[in-house]
Amino acid sequence: KGANLPVLATSVRAVLGWRGGAGVPDADGSALLLVNNKVRNDDDFVFYNQPQHPGGAVRHEGKSGGSGGPVTDTLLVDLARVEPAVERIVLAASADGGTFGAVPELHIRLLDAVSGVEVARFDSPGATTETAFIFGELYRRAGVWKFRAVGQGYDSGLAGLARDFGISVDDAP
User: How confident is the model over 19-32, as pLDDT tens digits?
Assistant: First the structure.
């Protein structure tokens, strides 16, 4: 947690992983593209219901696996296509049907999208009651992309995480 490293790849896959099974909540990966620590509008929030950023730099590629085995949810980030105004891309997830404390072997892997080589891995730092989690972020520093392991949880779910980054959430049923 807190470690950072340069990302030399021009595009990466952020792969959220865990072990599925009976009673294990599902998890949904998401990305928030930030300018001055906020999204500019709802288009800067990429997830299963909005699977691609309009500029094409970030795309939700979906889930694979399950039924007692490894499960992944993947986001593709084409760093070369990220608009210059975007300073950070937050890599997060929300739990559906429980808390992250009930999700075994929870982690995120950052892979070079071309070669498939692992650039970074961050294992969940002891999640408990959280229903949303920021695993890491890609950010620019002096023209170079870097990855930082964050490990910040939210008991307020995806709505709480989204609000923190400037997304208006309708709480009405």
Answer: 999 899 999 999 99
Which residues fall within 8 angstroms of residue 164, CB to CB, at 6 or more apart? Answer: 154
Torsion of CA 164, 169, 172, 173, to 10 degrees: -100
Average pLDDT over residues 86-114: 94
Decide if 99 contacts 106 (C-beta within 8 A). no
Contact between residue 130 and residue 99 where contact means Cβ atoms under 8 Å apart: yes
C-alpha dist (Å) from residue 12 to 25, 52, 121: 26, 15, 13
User: Rounded to an integer, what distance in angstroms lies between the CA atom of residue 83 and that of residue 1?
Assistant: 27
List the one residue out of 165, 171, 166, 170 whose CA is nearest residue 152. 165
Residue 118 is given by DSSP the state E
Helix (H, G, I), strand (E, B) or coil at 120: strand
Distance CA 94, CA 156 (A): 10
* pLDDT confidence of residue 171: 60
Residues 149 and 2: beta-carbon distance below 8 Å: yes
Alpha-carbon distance values, 57 to 15, 40, 76 (Å): 16, 15, 8
Computed over every residue of the chain, the mean pLDDT equals: 92
Q: What's the pTM value of the predicted model, to 2 decimals? A: 0.93
pLDDT tens digits, 144-168: 999 999 988 898 888 888 888 988 7
